[in-house]
Amino acid sequence: MAPPMSASGFLDALRAEGVTVAEVGDWQHHNRNHKGPWGPVHGVMIHHTVTRGSERTVELCRDGYDDLPGPLCHGVITKDGTVHLVGYGRANHAGLGDDEVLRAVIAEKGLPPDNEANTDGNRHFYGFECENLGDGEDPWPEEQLEAVERVAAALCRHHGWTERSVIGHLEWQPGKVDPRGFSMSWLRERVAERLKG
């Protein structure tokens, strides 16, 4: 059982891991906590945005849209590797997912197939949206991939989690494909290496 860290602790953890951070507005208090609890947290979830253009992507992830209000994540990782903090607390990023996947994340075991959507993921995961069209062709610059690795490692390091606490949206919710363009097993290997340091 891990309570979420404070917003200032979250910021400090990211900076300590060498993440380039941009604070967007009153991100520390921008959340969906009135819709349900935030925590305990059990992992980090990675997404892609299906958008192009950093400014537009950050704005969309902060504000959301008519049928899905923002914030849509905690941080937006743009192509240049900057992590734009847009919210803190409950965010509309994970949606409903598989309770067996959550149990595997908590136990830090291999993930079963996600074949149900019966558990509130917005409560239990830190979420990062990565600027990418998600078409399998839009490139992932090394600066961006390194930032994804660093944010995941920062949160794992703080909570004492292993790389098995880092999952993709596609591993949580049936029908999702994000992030597309790299594999989560590859990312977890990179996070594991960083956590050794």
From TrEMBL:
Gene3D superfamilies hit by this protein: Peptidoglycan recognition protein-like
The keyword Hydrolase is assigned to this record: yes
SUPFAM superfamilies tied to this protein: N-acetylmuramoyl-L-alanine amidase-like
EC number(s) per entry: 3.5.1.28
UniProt domain N-acetylmuramoyl-L-alanine amidase: residue ranges: 27-180
Keyword set, alphabetical order: Hydrolase
Pfam families assigned to the protein according to its UniProt record, in alphabetical order: Amidase_2 (PF01510)
InterPro entries xrefs: Amidase/PGRP_sf, Amidase_domain
GO molecular function list: N-acetylmuramoyl-L-alanine amidase activity
Top-level enzyme category: hydrolase
Protein name per Swiss-Prot or TrEMBL: N-acetylmuramoyl-L-alanine amidase
Organism per entry: Streptomyces cinerochromogenes
